[in-house]
TrEMBL record:
Record has Ribosomal protein as a keyword: yes
Coiled-coil regions listed in the entry: none
Gene Ontology process terms (BP): maturation of LSU-rRNA from tricistronic rRNA transcript (SSU-rRNA, 5.8S rRNA, LSU-rRNA)
Name used for this protein in its record: Large ribosomal subunit protein uL30-like ferredoxin-like fold domain-containing protein
The keyword Ribosomal protein is assigned to this record: yes
InterPro entries: Ribo_uL30_ferredoxin-like_sf, Ribosomal_uL30, Ribosomal_uL30_CS, Ribosomal_uL30_euk, Ribosomal_uL30_euk_arc, Ribosomal_uL30_ferredoxin-like
GO CC terms, sorted: cytosolic large ribosomal subunit
Length: 247
């Protein structure tokens, strides 16, 4: 029998072999790092981070109860809404995390109170007061004096430019953003906010919310109304004492 001719091996260039080796090495390193950090390269979950079924049920019930209470508050007669003694309000978010219903969270976000201990200036209109009534267990508010308006803006004020927070250290930033409204410096902003001027809304959209410090004292840790010995609701002029502790 004639001997079978040996099969010729396909020629593979050296460049391709090097690429294959590099790819295999990178895959091996990736797998090693995944094993060190946990599956898919993520951080290992702590046991306490895993919620038990009873905890999920409790949070669901708390959110549903929050919605029921919000509806009950909105059924109050409109005459129950106190007539504001000032055109300007300063609102501070004190509470609210996992126990809030999504509708409550949406109202807080619409008021630009996205985090605890954030504050915003608002005009005291019937619509604003109605919204504050709905989220009363989570916020406190009152009538800031001229001194605190100025201190908050000078000390905690940031401008929003291209969705970035920019410290107000240069009047050129203010002129660039609000110059078309005749507002050229920090003094103009303070005057417009304190007096509820015609460009109040434009200024608030530019400033955003104020990030305040957690007060060492002055809060009772209760969601009851301030007039009933708690922390929330209308403090009227006494909001200035809380601002001093948080600014």
């Amino acid at each position: 029998m004639a001997e079978a001719e040996p099969l010729e091996m396909a020629y593979i260039s050296e460049v391709i072999l090097k690429k294959r080796k590099h790819k295999e090495e990178s895959i091996a390193l990736t797998r090693k790092s995944q094993l060190e950090l946990g599956q898919h390269g993520g951080k290992k979950r702590k046991v306490e981070d895993i919620k038990r079924p009873e905890q999920l049920v409790r949070e669901f019930r708390e959110r549903e109860l929050d919605l029921i209470r919000m509806k009950q508050r909105t059924k109050r007669a409109k005459s129950a809404l106190s007539t504001p003694n000032s055109k300007l309000l300063f609102v501070i978010r004190l509470h609210g995390k996992n126990d809030m219903h999504p509708k409550t969270r949406k109202i807080l976000y619409n008021l630009r109170l996205t985090r605890i201990f954030h504050g915003v200036f608002l005009k005291a209109s019937p619509g604003v007061l109605e919204l504050l009534q709905k989220v009363e267990p989570y916020v406190t508010y009152g009538y800031p004096n001229a001194k605190n308006v100025s201190c908050l803006i000078y000390k905690k004020g940031y401008g929003k430019i291209d969705n970035k927070r920019v410290p107000l250290i240069d009047n050129n930033i203010i002129e660039q953003a609000l110059g078309k409204h005749g507002i050229l410096c920090l003094e103009d902003i303070v005057h417009e906010v304190a007096n509820g001027g015609p460009h109040f809304r434009e200024i608030l959209n530019f400033l955003g919310s104020f990030s305040l410090n957690k007060p060492k004292e002055g809060l009772q840790g209760k969601r009851a109304l301030f007039k009933d010995g708690g922390d929330t609701g209308n403090r009227e002029n006494q909001i200035n004492d809380l601002i001093d502790k948080m600014n």
